[in-house]
Amino acid sequence: MAKELTAIEWRSDQWLFQFGGLRPDNVLEYFSQSPFWDSSSNNAILKMQTQFNELQQASYNLASMVGIEFAVTHQEPPSLFIITKFRRSSPTKIVSLAVYYIVDGNAYEAPNLYSIISTRMLSSIKKVEEAFEVARKHSEFHPSIGYSWKETTEQKNARKAALKEKEKDS
Fold this sequence. Notes:
Component of the Mediator complex. By secondary structure, the protein is of the alpha+beta class.
């Protein structure tokens, strides 16, 4: 099972200073320094194989490789970059595994849909439980009449006055 990294914020001020900030041509290199990076990815393998090669990584086609790869899927330089982690099983078949975003140099893992929905459902259920608790405090049970609402003296007087007023109008 993959490690839960959605609670992590990562930043390397030293790297940003050394390379003059983030650009489309260096954002994956920056991301490769983060704990989100998979060192067994196709990107990492190509980087290792071509680091001392004049051809460099640009001449290799990641789409022809099978395995994990990272790609910048959206960018609004210099402040926003979205990176997606894919599993490629053929040149045309890829499955998204995770989405990461870098905002002003801070890298995060986006939560998956399951986490978002379960958190929202849990908070909704908690609110429903709280509403039932409030309702329970304002109700009473009698064996012969069942449940009824507790009324304060002021509420009883207001209800009786409304009933009298209704009888006068009839």
